[in-house]
Amino acid sequence: MTIFGSSGDHRLHELGPDDVDLMEAMNTMFGEAFDDAEVYGGARPSRTYLSRLLGRPHFIAMAALDAGTVVGGLVAYELEKFERERSEIYIYDLAVAASHRRCGIATALIDALRALAARRGAYVIFVQADHGDDPAIALYEKLGVREDVLHFDIAPLRRIS
């Protein structure tokens, strides 16, 4: 587990294959922060699955800890590009527990990801925000350039048994 730095009393860690307990705690925190406990806790992956995922080079998970408790987290994916020899990093989830907001934790997590992206030679980090999520939009506008795009969810074909 690599310590990226600190923000006040908070320590930031990049999770690895041995950090399944922290990943599970981060899932719980995401469920509470997003008010979506069913998505983040209703069908939890096995410890073996999480350990394997945490060991994959394209999967990035960082936890903000306060006295050993997960109070913030970031999950991202490194996407290798085909048109050039470079990659982009997509922030999939970023949240801070309600009790620890407005303390700089989200910014510290993104800054740690920026340092990781630089070490990996990534071209850019990108993230999406939902309309009406004003705190997230304000944070991302402070750190980057806004692009107004449309997002579409396309369902896969159903398997025929």
Main attributes of the structure:
161 residues, alpha+beta, 33% helix, globular
What can you see in these coordinates?
This protein has 161 residues and is an alpha+beta fold. It has helices at 20-33, 37-41, 47-54, 105-120, 134-143; strands at 2-7, 10-14, 59-66, 69-80, 87-96, 124-127. It has a 6-stranded mixed sheet. Helix 4 links the parallel strand 5 (87-96) and strand 6.
The major β-sheet equals: 6 strands, mixed
Distance between the termini: 42 Å
Helical residues, percent: 25-40%
Strand order of the largest sheet: 1-2-3-4-5-6
- In angstroms, what is the radius of gyration? 16 Å
Give the topology string: H per helix, E per strand.
Answer: EEHHHEEEHEH
In short:
This protein is of the alpha+beta class and 161 residues long. The chain contains 5 helices and 6 strands, in the order ββαααβββαβα.
SSE arrangement:
Blueprint (H helix, E strand, L loop, with lengths): L1 E6 L2 E5 L5 H14 L3 H5 L5 H8 L4 E8 L2 E12 L6 E10 L8 H16 L3 E4 L6 H10 L18
Parallel strand pairs: 5-6
Antiparallel strand pairs: 1-2, 2-3, 3-4, 4-5
